[in-house]
TrEMBL record:
Coiled-coil regions, chain positions: none
Bilayer topology term: Multi-pass membrane protein
Keywords, alphabetical: Membrane, Transmembrane, Transmembrane helix
Region annotated Disordered, chain positions: 1-27
Domain of life: Bacteria
Protein name as it appears in the record: GPR1/FUN34/yaaH family protein
Listed Pfam families: Gpr1_Fun34_YaaH
Location of the protein in the cell: Membrane
Main location: membrane
Amino acid sequence: MSSDRRELMTTTEIPSQTSNGHKVAVEKTETAPTEVPTSLSANPALLGYPAFAIGALSLALFLTGFNQTTIPSTLAGGLPIMIVASGLLLIVASIWAIKRNDGVQAAIFGLFGAFWLSFTVLIVGLLDNWFGKLPEPAQRGANANFLLVWFVLMLAMTFATLRLPKAITLLFVLVDFSLITLFSAVSIARPGAGGDPFILHPGIAALFIMPFLGLYLFMSATNAALGGKSFPMGKPFIKR
């Protein structure tokens, strides 16, 4: 008997025309109300991808010095977004995915959330001397090490997503490209510079593309949740 539709068997006494008026037990079938399945609208992507997109856009604006007068004033606008809108909401999306037994989305959103939270700890810690009063070369080295470690992890995640739609894999490719270019720019920059501009600018360009792809994934999930079809995502590189 299916879980979404069940039949209740009841016994009702009704007169029979073939039994001289005697009442006989006849089984009568009644249909129970249809059970409502788990809603397809309960998709962690509805929260995870916009949270990722706004964090990537905020970081890209920070690196370009948009409306920048001093570094602390620029971070005052970007860090709250990275901490709350990106870091915490991505962790919530990861927990949401765990509740739905969706380990892949839980890993994706959880790792992205951990990146934004750890990035804010790094930046604020360096500015406020949480790790000691480090000279400028040591601070650049800390930034470079941070970017390299996350690049290695995200590269592994990129290969792990080859069985997912191409749009998701492309998102990780953009993340990989931005991380390795930012790492290279910081590593070879001259003292006092934020990064080598010839390498830094392509990485920033990738950061500006990521929010649009993240919002595309968000709108696709929203359209599907409202009864429509998902947007084209591309077939996986490796078929299941």
